[in-house]
Amino acid sequence: MRITSLRAVAVAFVLASSTVTISGTTAAAANSNTISGITDGLARALAGELTDHTVRDTLTKLAPVTPVDVRALDVRGRLGAVIDKANADLLAAKGLPAGAARLSEVRLGSPTMVNALRQGVTPLVAATPNDDNAKTFVAYAPGGKAETLPTATVPRQPVLFVDVDVKTATRLGLAVIDRETARHRKAAPALTAQGGYWATQLTSIRFKDVEEPWFKGAAEIFAVVGGFDLNGDARTDIVDMPYLDDENTTYYPNQLVIHWNRYKYNAADIVFMEDDGDTNYLQLAQALIAALAYLTDTGAYQPLVNAILQAMPGSWWTDDPDFVDACYTLTQQANDTRTCAGANGTVSVRPFWVSEL
């Protein structure tokens, strides 16, 4: 899924140029292999296996519109080392702990390809393009011969895409962000009223103006909530939204997104982001830490989104696929439906009392 608006903000959160060490790993090291390069190499290796009729038969039976582990097609056991190396490289490229999960997966580009695959049409294998605006992509025929295909229309020939398991990556990545930002946060006691505290509940959410190319897999949406903690320091909290899959669809999560006992002022902002597969969570955590270091408590609330924009050099104001939208100045008393700043997101919120047991 691809959601487009206010793209400049995203660059503040996906700063790739620094090599500051976080937990013993450098962002530069995590960037030594790109997601596209890793998945392209795995696509070539898998295409080489498709000359084997047993592998082709397995693929035909699977017809995986829903993603499956790449190992499902390694029926001869010849790709084990290649797959293990790709998974290790993917974890590093996404800034995730080594050995945390297997992230490589494969899927058919479109449900319309299932019949052709089952009728024996020769399949191609490709890495999923990270660029939603790509005009062409490279696919590999059985044996590994490269072909260039346009993205404008869905091919009649089945295309098997090697992709990243973004659901797993997002879950692990948000834990990385929470851990790293917490390490750089001064200790501040949570302000808890007797018997509980107030939170903001997200009762519905909807995004529009979504460009979802046929070749892209599902994206994972998450939110960065920003405000000032009880010490007066800027802080962020990460909220996973794994249910958010489709455009022009209203979801009713009843999810708690802001916990007001953590904040000094009666105002907070929410920035919605997505992982299309190429998000590096270690760099994202690093960017948040760097941006928040510029912010000081002036005795009055200042929007976190604006402050980050002002802190970022103009050279970083470029198109980025990972920003969705931002909602400014949500308060503890907010009980309404509002459109976010980029007019892509519409959210309904209400106060929610979290009582003690």
Q: Assign the CATH class of the largest domain.
A: Mainly Beta
Helix amount, in percent? 25-40%
Low-confidence stretches: 1-32, 309-321
Number of helical elements: 9
**Spatial strand sequence of the major β-sheet:** 3-4-8-5-6-7
Terminal-residue CA separation: 40 Å
Category from helices, strands and their pairing: alpha+beta
Question: CATH fold name of the largest domain, please?
Answer: Immunoglobulin-like
Q: Give the CA-based shape.
A: elongated
Keywords: Signal
Protein name: DUF3103 family protein
InterPro entries: DUF3103
Pfam families: DUF3103
3D structure, described in words:
This protein is of the alpha+beta class and 357 residues long. It has 2 domains: 8-26 and 187-355, Immunoglobulin-like; 29-164, no CATH class. Helices cover 26% and strands 27% of the residues. The chain is built from 9 helices and 16 strands. It has helices at residues 8-13, 27-30, 35-49, 53-62, 80-93, 114-118, 166-183, 281-292, 304-311, and strands spanning 21-22, 25-26, 68-69, 104-108, 124-127, 136-140, 146-150, 159-164, 196-207, 220-228, 234-241, 255-259, 268-275, 323-330, 336-339, 345-355. Helix 7 (166-183) runs parallel beside helix 8 (281-292). It is elongated, with a radius of gyration of 22 Å. The chain starts with 7 loop residues before the first helix and ends with a strand.
